[in-house]
Every structure is written in structure tokens, then in C-alpha cells.
Amino acid sequence: TGPNWGVEPENKWGTLSSDNNGETSTQIIPSLAGDYGQFYTLMAAAIKHNAPVPTSAKHGADIIRVLETARKSFAEKKIIAL
Which of 28, 40, 73, 81 is the most exposed place for a label (fewest CB within 10 A)? Predict the structure, then answer.
């Protein structure tokens, strides 16, 4: 661990393209620092001690939908509304 633990380098940041009434804008979005270790610690506590799960099934499904749409958008080279 250290000050850059879980921090993505700038070349890994995302690009968000948006269409607002036919006008496209693009911006670079810095990645949020991640911590899979903390996620799995919380998940273990949920399984072993009936603690709350670190994320809901709906949240996980929403993330999958966004990722699948992003992949499709990239493959088709077009903006796809969610």
C-alpha cells in the first residue's frame, strides 16, 4: 500500500462522450481509487457474521449494464443511450 494504492494512471482514465440535442461533448474522467481488499473484507464479514453486503445486487446489475453498453458503444463506434 501507499499514497498511490488503487490509483489509475492518467492514460487509463475514461473518456465520456455525451450527446445533448445533437451536440457531442467529450471529457476525460479520472478513475476513482479502488480497494478490492476492502470489498472482500466486507464480503467475508457478510458471509461469516451476517453483516451487510458491501454492495447490492441491483447496483452490481447496473454496473454490468453500463459496462456492456460501453463495450457495445465502442464496438459500434456510436453513442448509445442508457
Answer: 81
Global pTM value: 0.58
Reported as a single tens digit per residue, the pLDDT across 28-71 is 999 988 888 899 999 999 999 999 999 999 999 999 999 999 99
User: Would you call 20 helix, strand, or coil by DSSP?
Assistant: strand
d(CA 4, CA 62): 28
Of 28, 16, 27, 23, the closest CA to residue 73 belongs to 16
- The residues facing 3 across adjacent strands are none
